[in-house]
Amino acid sequence: EDQVTQSPEALRLQEGESSSLNCSYTVSGLRGLFWYRQDPGKGPEFLFTLYSAGEEKEKERLKATLTKKESFLHITAPKPEDSATYLCAVQTSNDYKLSFGAGTTVTVRA
Amino acid sequence: GAVVSQHPSRVICKSGTSVKIECRSLDFQATTMFWYRQFPKKSLMLMATSNEGSKATYEQGVEKDKFLINHASLTLSTLTVTSAHPEDSSFYICSARDWLASSTDTQYFGPGTRLTVL
User: Terminal CA-to-CA distance of chain A, rounded, Å?
Assistant: First the structure.
């Protein structure tokens, strides 16, 4: 059974204090790993898709990386508007289903 | 691009009534849409896969007679919660995959529907 584990569960940062979120996965065959951002009471917002180990993608203060066992979401010099829950999901089959981790809730204080 | 809408955003109903939630892809066509349920401070749980022109595929433990899914067109899927009870109260979110974007498997999510059953 596919397993996706995110850590830490919660992360409190001072504005400008860079940090990383972890998503470790155990799957039979990875087709893609996805990062989403979710604000309270909203649907997830797509951030990145990573397909192969060594791949990296960046968007503003966020950078996602992928290895054969885990993915990291690096937040550089975060701002209060980066406060959200960040969800990691894996896709392993050709039916396009996603298995989500529990998420990391990031709070950035000014 | 890749915008998905849901209607209504919030609904309150009495126990025993049925509620229909619509999911629309606004600027792309989606042969496949997905319905998720999310409990407070929990992650998304896939309920079913909605396929245009065919029957939905339900995940284990999800009652297909209670959660009716119809995907009548390439831009619209509906979820009907039949004979709703308080335990069905939850945040329901749909997602859609752009069928023309063969180079990506990305799902785009709607804003969610908060269902409260009294």
Answer: 41
Token readout for B22 is 């619509």
Task: Give every CB contact of residue A60 below 8 A, 6+ residues apart in sequence.
Answer: none
Report, in angstroms and rounded to the nearest whole number, the Rg of chain B calculated over CA atoms.
Answer: 14
Mutating which of A96, A104, A105, A107 best tests the B interface, going by the most B Cβ atoms within 10 A?
Answer: A96
Instruction: Give the C-alpha separation, B39 to B91, whole Å.
Output: 7
Cross-chain residue pair A49–B114, CB shorter than 8 Å: no
Distance of alpha carbon B110 from alpha carbon A75, whole angstroms: 25
Neighbour count for residue A93 (Cβ, 10 Å):
11
Query: What is the rounded average pLDDT of the residues B88-112?
Result: 86
Does a cis peptide bond (omega within 30 degrees of 0) precede residue B8? Answer: yes
Distance of alpha carbon A100 from alpha carbon B73, whole angstroms? 27
B32 touches chain A (CB under 8 A): yes
Dist. CA B35–CA B44, nearest whole Å: 10
Supply B84's token pair.
């709703």
pLDDT digits (tens, 9 = 90+) for A57-85: 999 999 999 999 999 999 999 999 999 99
Residue B104 binned pLDDT confidence (cut-offs 50, 70, 90): low
A44 at interface of B, judged by CB pairs closer than 8 A: yes
